[in-house]
Structure prediction request, 1141 residues.
Amino acid sequence: MLSHPPLRRRSGFQVNAVGLAAGAIVLFWAIVALVGPDLAPHPPGEIVDFDFYGPVSARLWMGSDYLGRDIFSRILMGARYTVGISLAAVCIACFSGIVLGMTAAVIGGWFDTLLSRFLDALSSIPSKLFGLVVVAAVGSSIPVLVLVLAVIYTPGSYRFARALAVNSNTMDYVAVARARGEGTGYLITQEILPNIAGPVLADLGLRFVFIVLLLSGLSFLGLGVQPPYADWGSLVRENLGGLPFAAPAVIFPCLAIASLTISVNLLIDNLPVRIRDRSD
Amino acid sequence: MTGQITLLVLGRLGVALITLVIVSFVVFGATEMLPGDVAQILLGQAATPEAVAGLREAMHLNEPALLRYAHWLFGLAQGHLGTSYANHMPIAGLIGGRLMNTLQLAAVTTVIAVPTALFLGITAAMYQGTLYDRVVTTTIVAVISVPEFMIATMAVLVFAVWLKWLPALSFANDVASFGELLRIFAMPVITLCCVISAQMIRMTRAAVIDALKMPYVEMALLKGASRSRIVLHHALPNAIGPIVNAMALSLSYLLGGVIIVETIFNYPGIAKLMVDAVATRDLPLIQTCAMIFCFGYLTLITAADIIAILSNPRLRR
Amino acid sequence: MPLVDVRDLKVEARTDAGRRIEIIRGVSFTVAEGEITALIGESGSGKTTIALTLMGHARSGCTITGGTVELAGRDLVAMPESGRQQLRGTEVAYIPQSAAAAFNPAQRLIDQVVEVARIHRLMPMAAARAKAVELFRALALPEPETIGNRYPHQVSGGQLQRLAAAMALIGGPRLVIFDEPTTALDVTTQIEVLRAFKTVMKQGSMGGVYVSHDLAVVAQIADRIVVLKGGEVQEEGPTEAILHCARHPYTRELLAAFEPLRSDAPAGAANRPPRPVVEVKDLVAGYGPLGKDGLPFSVALRKVSCRLERGRNLGVVGESGSGKSTLARVIAGLLPPASGRVQLDGRELAASARGRSKDELRRMQIVFQLADTALNPARSVADIVGRPLTFYHGRKGRAREARVDELLDMVRLPRALRHRLPGELSGGQKQRVNLARALAAEPAVVLCDEITSALDSVVAAAVIELLKELQRELDLSYIFISHDLSTVQAICDEVMVMYKGEVVENLTADQLPDGARHAYSKLLFASVPKLDTGWLDSVPATVA
Prediction:
């Protein structure tokens, strides 16, 4: 392609303020998940305050927890679990959902019917209870959590990708490729995937939010990340005793979850718009 | 064409039934995976190996899993729910009261949340792009994005800690007056209403806005119809299918999804019963609860599908 | 005072990028009381936008930025929305392009027809219903008493279009706006609908604005014609004057595109003995599962046979539902037939594309009607045209790039377009890319499925011209499927007329259009509008 330098086109991206702010917060948490523990002012497991449920102070920015540990450090540490586990789970769920969904749409017939029936049945089990039973059965560990969350959210991703792929599959350009003699693999990767990539990525973001919420819920019930480690849901659970006197130890982990999930949602709703004016 | 409708409805019911069988298989399989020998757990560590073997025999635990699945499914179909492993009480008795509690909570929430959601969803679509619409949609995004335990803790903070209007925890044991009842229900109901109406408002608004993009809506505008007439007479009747579907999805949450709310407010419902059953490895109880949840979900979804079929004018005569 | 007085109207539209573009640039015209004025132009000329401003309406993204639109002396632009609401339906009414989409599927027809009377409280409902039935009768609708009790999906497209007219006329408007009301209809239906419109408009002596791209249709119904291009008036005048002594070059171009181009004498074909490239025998095909009788649930083709000789072109004409597109899909191997066979160069082809060899697939290429859906919106022009080169000929890298450039030259597209996505091309350019992709395979036969139907007449004429040139250069044979008889006439040597899945008549090009013997082909050819103001009245009503 070197012989043909790309033409200059009027193109660019339009970003709005809400999207920018949301993106910044998401980026912030991503960085915290990567390097957060190194920034923590106190070791997350160390008791640094004689008082428990201590107030916000210059030394303890977000107060102390039920044992007198520094909440700020524990939230920085928790980001790694909440973001990491959710990200791994959403990637597995969406990858398998998209691959299965597109294959079902292109092949159709019995394969499609059976797979759709089975995954529909799977999604009729309330997600929290499914997670609960399996985690209780196998015991909670990080790989188990990732897998369970992935399994729970695969049917939804499958259904979404399949619906898009079925739409795309009825288009004439797919018919042209079929008439040309192209194989299923080419149809899926070259003709269909590029056209559903945008919505599928947005769906990935939404599903990430659901997974963060479910993981926090499981941790809140004591079935998620196990002590001495703690994700944000576990932090809320540990410090629920402080609720009657509005301890910062309960409020800040809640705010951490909310800031991440709301930002992801807002980012998806305000994605940068690609500008491609037709210029004849 | 009424024959066609009947066929479609029967088809939906058939699909629901097949799904229920698949679900029962999954539920049975998942509970089978629970580790530990049930007989051993029931008799405790001190039991003799002979006693454990005897109990295994008595409970048919030595039979192949598929045969036990058939036994269980057959019993379930006839209404034999079995006895609890943990305290040897009939499951029907254990579940009965708890199910009633959950259904009560669900009923009260539905009565409040559905009309509110419909009103907010439709008016937000009607005044799309206005300040009102933006306030509604932003609030919804916020509510959808946070975990329910956070909404519950916020409700406790606001109503119990700061305003001191309501007790922080619900105990359904000592209901003396209507006022008392109200105070017990208030907190869980507020939380659940927030959680489920957010989804419903979002879907209702989206469905009405989709319908508003149709050419017949522009036609109505060009006939001189007012905005409210356009929305109520032209857009809404064509958005019933997706709206009912969203309602069913949200309401199904009130059966199995309420677990966190029941835990936080210490409300003796069926989801909490199931969590306790998982803790004690009470297989028959877990299986029955799971089947109740899935049955409820399928009933709601199937009902929504059937309503959508009946409301489709293209199938009318 | 004229009924409508539009002065220096300006409308702006916002692009995705937020750029503002003036799409109507100072248009002025008038419509007298009881007169029908036509707005003629191709897509993008702004004709529908202007028509909607006569109702005080601009679609979302568009705003009226200047000028006045006066209806009986009242300016619709300056008026508040509530004032416009009162005029809509009572003073000015609208007949949409697609009545099928403009009727609410959830309501009975009669309720929608009388809705104007209900909204504006014009008369008691019983009186409105009675008036509706009267209008149904005047518009020659079948069962006028009861047709209103049906739902929109239960009546045909032509009936819906007349019901939409009844819906517009119920409020007794002084001005009726027709927005391409017959474009979506088959020609035999179009003639009935036009006749009905003309009758009621004459009886009610109402003013009208008729938006269309079809000069021949407009010639039948309009008193005056306004020719639009790019949001500006090119020429304006009485119908006869525009048709016979157009002054503006653009108007002449429009008229020229309409002239049926005679197919050139089949070049060189006469010298060679006829040899069939494609031969189709007794095809039966359809959709849905096969029944006990071996027929599909819904049969689209019943025992269809035809043959295409090398270097010649076969036209397949018929109305929607005649099975002509299904025929193309079966020949291409996209829809395996229930029975019958397809031969290419004397050798039988497998029923499905999957079973055909690469070379068989290469020699027969299909080009679809809508370039919008036939080109993958996520791939660049170079990718789209280059894929068959790699797939069939194994060309990669520089060789492939060079060939793509040649192909773009061949379909008269600038090479610079190679990096564009289909969404950034115009309709005609897309169709040329569509064609280039088929040519990349170096085929012997090209199946053209309605490839000019979605194009403006001037652009379509150019594409037809291109097809002819390519045929001379590349020794191609076309199967040309179309509902538009004049384009088929322009390119085909033989024409096959289809009706409800069967071949009713085979004709040679020189027998067209008067040589038809079968009753249906006669009706079909007679229904094609002519550039002659007296044509509609001259066609005997028994034909329609």
In short: The first strand of chain A starts at residue 11 and ends at 14. Residues 71-107 of chain A form the longest helix (37 residues). Confidence is low (pLDDT under 50) at residues 1-10 of chain A. Chain A has one domain: 14-272.
